[in-house]
Amino acid sequence: MRTVEVTAPDGTRWGVRVVWEPRWRVMARRFGGWRSKRRDDVSPGDALSSGAEVASNVGGSGGSSGIADELVVLAVVFFALVLVAVLFWWVLLPLLLIILDGLIVLALLLASVVARVLFRRPWIVRATSTSGEATEVEVVGWRAALRRRDAIADSLRHGLSPAPEVIGL
């Protein structure tokens, strides 16, 4: 949400905004326990062996030309498999996970806004000065919170105190 910046007649700069964060800081804290732990003993993928054995027991008519053709085809197929695996692991999978993460965040945001509106949880309007002074007002309803934000900014602009009892709507 947009922060309204105002300057009081005494020169103090104030920022007034509607706070989006949850009421309980514990809910907003990132615990980090779900993150995987780094291990030094994990070696890069050994799923593909370093070399492929080709049987040299080719009968009769092909000779060394047939073996060379098979080696070239095998090398091209091996290179293509490695290229597809690398592209999947380093490009496609991260993109899919980013999209999935974005969809989850969007769904949680929509659910939280709907829950806040349905359960009529108050929005917090916070006024903070550059000197560190801060005050908060709880207002039920999104439009009422925006009106209260604008009223607090207007009262600060005219030199009034941002205290909730001074600002009455």
UniProtKB/TrEMBL annotation:
The keyword Transmembrane helix applies. The chain crosses the membrane at residues 71-92, 98-119. Keywords: Membrane, Transmembrane, Transmembrane helix. The keyword Transmembrane applies. This is Uncharacterized protein.
